[in-house]
Amino acid sequence: MYPERDCLHFLTVDTDGFNAPTPTAGTTAPAVRSRPDTLNVGCGKARLEGALNVDLSPRSYADLLYDLRRFPWPFAGDLFTHVQCHDVLEHLPDTIRTMEEIHRLCKPGATVAITTPHFSCANAFTDPTHCHQFGYFSFDFLTGDATHNHYTDVRFSYLTRQLVFHPSRKNILLRRLANRFPSFYERHLCWILPAWFVSVELLVIK
Questions:
Q1: 187 Cβ contact partners less than 8 Å away, ≥ 6 residues apart
Q2: I need a labelling partner for 206 at 20 to 30 A (CA). Which of 5, 29, 136, 142 fits?
């Protein structure tokens, strides 16, 4: 999803806080709505209408082509009220720096919706572009709930958090059990009865 290559567009900040894409030779600048409130990070082909959709791949449905491994991202701070980050964090090498950048771009009280494969999911290790695997407690390091909460000064709080399983009859009970006792599930059951992905919604604290 993020091969080593130069971005297709060089970016300069405009007066609204968004970076206006200037196309390189042979490319065309995408049409970007002025001042959308939602940022769809690593959108791929899951375009979100009314949002600013960002991805590196020219085969995506992005408004803006940008390599999300390059910091800072081309936006002013305190700009968005919602960030959608579905199936992208596992592709980026620096999770803490990525979340710090999302925090910078968000207004106080903004929400961040994240889905990422659970570490017990076969696809978490099968996809060769995945850099990291995540569990139920991975984002505790950003909310201050983890013992080792000194990796960053930025803070979020949980709005929702759940382990999601492939839809089936047997997984109805398992989903309830795993989300009621997530620590027990991850220590004793997950390699026998694997989860599908982790879904969290975070509130930006500033």
A1: none
A2: 136
